[in-house]
Amino acid sequence: MLSKKMAAALNKQIQEELFSSYLYLSMSAHFSDMGLEGFANWMSVQEKEERDHAMKIYSYLLSQGAKIKLLQLDEPQHEWKTPLEMFQAGLKHEQHITKCINDLVDIAEKEKDRATFNFLQWYIDEQVEEEENANGILDKLNLIKNSSDGLFMLDKELAQRVYTPLAAAE
Ligand code: FEO
Q1: Would you say the pTM of this structure is higher than 0.90?
Q2: Ligand 1 centroid vs 65 CA: distance in angstroms?
Q3: Could you tell me the pLDDT band of residue 33, with boundaries at 50, 70 and 90?
């Protein structure tokens, strides 16, 4: 049984994860506009993973008999100047999500809500991976700088990313 505060905070996190999906979908579309289909693929996979993150919370709330309340999504940014700027924005966004998860863990701890505390451990690990992924690509973009050959090679690499539905990955 979740407290009203915990349920509201988890509902808010569904919104955060769905906004993440919206943001990465916008980035995917922008990469396609730029002719960088590998980058667009990477963002498209990311977008789907974010929906999985939202749905995992959705299922948890239902399993606990809590009310689902879907909140309004903001319009994401549509234009960026460079791939570097996009991944910088992506990393900043993931750092924000990490803070959201940490805040949720704080609530669960204060309320001695062991079930939610355990549930959130998956998200703590996931956020380490999310920041690592964004940082890894940022490092490469910083090395590439303005080299179109480098960008072309990285685009080919990012084209390899494959989406694995969360239920299948666990
Ligand atoms: Fe669901 Fe990228 O955090």
Answers
A1: yes
A2: 24
A3: very high
